[in-house]
Amino acid sequence: MNAWVDVAKFAPGYLSLAWLASGAVRKAVVRHHRIRIGPVDEVREVLQTVRTAFMDFGAGDGARTGLDLPATRDLSLRMTDLGDRVTDERLRSALQEASVLLIGLTEYRVPISNLAGEPSERETERREREHGQAGHEHDTAFVARTVLSGVSLTSRALHHLNELERRTIGR
Prior knowledge:
By secondary structure, the protein is an all-alpha fold. The chain has helices spanning 2-37, 40-59, 62-65, 69-85, 89-106, 112-115, 121-169. It has one domain. It has 7 helices and no strands.
């Protein structure tokens, strides 16, 4: 009988200790998730911008005109920097892969010699003459594959980011 009185007397203390410990564990888990996600708003903004760039490139005359090289490089560098700040492996690899795809699409119509600062009109004309129509079909298929992979990659990354955010914040 005396033991039951002791249990009844100390039960509130044990329950409050368990509640306090579970709160500390929950706080540590949420902190870990926030660190894993990194800067959520910046990552979401960059992924949406890149997805829009891929869609615009695939829908418009992007294959002929290309993307704006300096702006795209800045966006790619920003994605790489954000990838370094994010500790979640799936999100980090998605940011890095999308950055590589974006740079590949940007340099699609820019010959290498043009990036080095040399005149490249003759080289572009020679390449078009050598490859002819088959080269154009190959280029179009390359652009279509790259655009589709870029859009699906960024969509999957945004979905994963939303899952991580739901686990962390509970939305």
